[in-house]
Amino acid sequence: MSLRLREMTRTGGLQLVCLVISVGFFALPLVYLALQAFKTNNEFLNDPTGLPHSWTFSNFSDAWSQGDFSNEMVNSLLYAVIPDIITLILGVFLAFPISRGWFKHSNLLYGFFVFSGFLPAGLIPLFIEAQKIGTYNSRIGYLIMTSLTGAGFFFFVGYIKTIPREMDEAAALDGCGYIRYIFTMVVPQMKPALATFGIFGFVAGWNNLILPLVMLNDQSLWPVTRGLFSFFGQYSSQWPLVAAATIIVALPILAVFALLQRNLVEGVAGGAAAGSGGVAVTQNPEKIS
Question: CA-to-CA distance for 160 and 182, rounded, in angstroms?
Fold first, then answer.
């Protein structure tokens, strides 16, 4: 066996060991959770670490009915999908003129928006403001609060900078309107970035627990995470039921990831590489009317 072949075999073996350790570290808790969901409560108490002897699906139906998941799933879909779509659209319309340098202080505005993303959320001022303007304990108010975030702005600026400016000029000469140009020319070329932050936004909206705890007092407005949280007080001794409820809550996230994961790596890598540079101010911009 040649020296190069031995080095390749040694490297491949090391990578395999690292892969097994990584998969085990992240996957074993999920596998354990899934297995406990198929046990009866007595079986779990007698053998909390073993495999199920009599596989049962009753925990899933009981968790669905006792947690009122049918209503909470609809609420969670609304709270995750609508703000996600609005945030992506606002992010594109905000990033495009900044990336083209249409404003005099585009770099300053760019730095301000990026810096604001690192500031902590002011939950108490937001709660007081929601009570003052009437958005507290309201589905519409909650959607407004979670939609105006501008997430993905940094990545979108980087992606739009990779789109040739000649396309702007050609669209302006052809009489293409600004909104039409954004939706028909810019957005299709940003699919990886939009898919990436679509996943991030959906997961963040779906898993959000603190904001619904503070802003939504009416039980009919609760998302599914708020309903899952109530299990830990009422059914904390029935861990198979809690495990089944946790799996039900996690399934939509897995479905979204499976649908959009093809664009996830490409979107993160492309946006990070292109977005690291500054914004070049255009002296005589060919703006699209």
Answer: 11
